[in-house]
Amino acid sequence: MSSPATERRILVVEDEALVAMLVEDALMDAGFTVVGPARTVSQALELLKADPPDAAVLDLNLGGENSLSVADALSARGIPFLVATGYGAAGLPAHLRHIPVLPKPYDPADLTVAIDRLCAGAR
Asked: Has keyword Phosphoprotein (predicted)?
């Protein structure tokens, strides 16, 4: 019998290869299916359009490129997401300040708990 996590697909938007691998490993270990990781805004938007995930982990800064357009696209589609960033909630524009922020660096267990919460709230 599968757990609820195995039915959830999580889009990972992260440009740092090592961080992306750690996020991917943590999510897969928790039973989630990982979409991506997307390393650029255009990759993230393509993945979002092609096969919308159940939730997402979004880094705000992708190699100097701002990913707020991805946040807006996720919001417009009603896909829950959290922002993983070293900038804190202050880096979010006012219309996104309700989005959960996971400050970097973070423990992988904190990530999976946060994603569990996002997915539970989306049911």
From this structure: yes
